[in-house]
Amino acid sequence: MLVVMERGATSEQVQAVVRRIEELGYMARPMAGLQRTAVAILGNQGSVDAARFSDLAGVKALVPVTEPFRQASREWQPENTVVRLPGGVTVGGDEVVVMAGPCAVESERQIVDTARLVRDAGATVLRGGAFKPRSSPYSFQGLGEQALVWLARARQETGLAVVTEVMDTESVELVARYADVLQVGARNMQNFSLLRRVGRAGKPVLLKRGYAATITELLLAAEYILAEGNPQVILCERGVRGFDGATRFVLDLAAIPLVHRLSHLPIVADPSHGTGLRGTVVPMARAAFAAGADGLLIEVHPSPEHALSDGVQTISTGEFAELMRQCRAIAEVVGRRVAEPVEVG
Ligand code: PEP
Ligand code: MN
Question: Which of 96, 101, 107, 31 is nearest to 69 (CA)?
């Protein structure tokens, strides 16, 4: 159960609620949200009578929270979270957002050229890895800070917001200096110290679903970030492990409407990692928009066959431009519109 406080409730009023919960023999945990504070009642079996709080000032309502995640749940916040990115792009509102770019930043020319091409086709966020989590320690690991500098240059040239992965707590400060959105990768979805740290970084976070993680675990991972006071979380469905090696992962499209029912947080889909196969990326991207995704994260390279990582699942800039045309039509059918790039002067 949550005791939801009125907006503007004072800390004395919150403390009075905490005392009342403890008098009733339960534990109390105040949680400061973006709009208002709520106090979670822990340790109760069944519901708690709202009348027990009716004499306390500043109390708005008692809300049952049936899910283990709290601030991430729709019970906590019925209205959608809209994450605002530089350049006026919003994720989780009426617009659907396309985030595109190479798996990894390989050179200044590669990232700036790709940024221009995806922007001209209609992307509003540029992706590109500087620190790459690779299955093998002998694979290309990314170019680190140099790549961050080039991403910032690409942003300057195109006006695109930049999303890039942060792999460990030590590099959060560095990555946050350059990125507009901090990506937490699938392999780090339950790296709780990293989640707490990005929760304090003051930047929106793109949290990717672990490929053996349930939807509940994804939302509990988001809860770690929200619990640190960062409400700007974008979830990402990027495929889970299946039994059939025909695709590398199985994009769980049902996760999109399920997450929308359970949570107010936006969810985007990554059909590139979600299948691991170039030929399936475009159809799955279309399907994700049709299923209600708030955006796409998609790997695009001017020359996918020469990409230093994930070339087999990367589409060309030409294929991407065609996909964008299709996405605009699908967005219209589901009552959304694709966010358009801003003009840079
Ligand atoms: C990526 O987006 O570059 C990436 C490594 O994805 P994931 O964490 O989903 O494997
Ligand atoms: Mn990749």
Answer: 31
119 lines ligand 1 (CB under 6 A): no
Nearest atom, ligand 1, residue 310 CA: 3
Q: pTM value?
A: 0.92
Q: Which domains does the chain have, with CATH numbers?
A: 2-63 (3.30.70.1140), 83-338 (3.20.20.70)
Task: Give per-residue pLDDT as tens, 10-67.
Answer: 999 999 999 999 999 998 989 877 678 899 898 887 888 999 999 999 999 998 888 8
* Cβ-proximal residues to 249 (8 Å cutoff; 6+ apart), any chain: 211, 238, 239, 240, 241, 242, 273, 274, 275, 276
Nearest CA to ligand 1 atom 3: 103
- CB within 8 A of 45, min separation 6: which ones? none
> How many angstroms is it from 74 CA to the middle of ligand 2?
31
What end-to-end distance do the CA atoms of the chain give, in Å? 51
Bridge partner residues of 42 (DSSP):
27
Q: Which atom of ligand 1 is nearest to the CA of 238?
A: 9
